[in-house]
Amino acid sequence: MEFHGAGTDWTCDPAVQQAAGEIWKKSGNSPFNRYIFGQVWPDQAAAKAHDLIIAWRRARPDLVIAECSDLGAHLAAKVLDLPVFAADNGLGPVLLELWDTDIAPALTSLYKRHGQDTPVLPAMLTPAPVPWFYRTPPPAARAVRRTVAEFRTVIPERLDRSPSSRPLVYVSLGTLATAMPGLRAVVGSVYREILAALSGIDCDAIVSAGDLAQDLPSTDPSIEVVEHVPQPVLLRRVDLCVTHAGRASLLDAVQGTTPVLGMGVLADQPDNAAVFARRGLGRALELAARRGEIADAVTAVPGDSHYNDAMTAANAELSQLPPLDIMELRDRI
């Protein structure tokens, strides 16, 4: 697919990463969310909207599907009267929570400059049943079937293990937090607690830690620390997924019918972990949990058939969602 840049590449700005990490460390996740989604993203929407309006006037799209957090794309589509849907990348619940108090007020002057009314989120597309993650459904929400890229369904030969009587645990705390200097050390410490917990358990483990892997040497032959793995296919083979509870990772686990131990880090992740625990799809622990508590949870979840049964039912519900129909969406609005 042809790709064109628009707006500014602010997500990799060291100043933004430093500020966000410091707010999270000093004040917690809620102030972090208000800073990122109620201040930084609205501030960046103007440049994105400007570039897209110019581009779309030259080559007018038939349909816009933009991430729910892509506030500039939403505005550009509205200015040009284009059909637009917001794709829920996991942040939909966070945006709805902050919309009236933080996000919409921050966008109002930008919308007025473009002759637009009060900012509103476009109709939402979500790759999971809407009640899974939303207490109050967003307006005009539509659940669609989730697909996974084919290259992510092939497991590397070095990770293709023979069946064993020992449970196989997969661990990944994502890559977003490790990009923030203030959070990188925190996440590294959590990995070390998890590795210590796994070392005292009769299990095998694969730990995917991104570029933190080089700082997490394992002396236990039953624990392999790697940078990356094709997560969707691996989750069809393991007995437990220890995860930061990002939306994609949780849905990978559902499609692999693998119970989870959620340890949410930031943004939507802590709430996601709690949601899955309430639905009986695993357990949730605080990020500050120590190795003993982690070991108890890692030992308990794989042996409990209730979690596996709940995951099997959730996977069936997920697979029954209708596929994304681009032509139907284009004609709907």
From TrEMBL:
Keywords associated with the record: Glycosyltransferase, Transferase
InterPro entries (alphabetical): UDP-glycosyltransferase, UDP_glucos_trans
Superkingdom of the source species: Bacteria
Chain segments annotated as coiled-coil in the UniProt record: none
Pfam families given in the database record: UDPGT (PF00201)
Protein name: Glycosyltransferase
Species in which this protein is naturally found: Streptomyces ehimensis
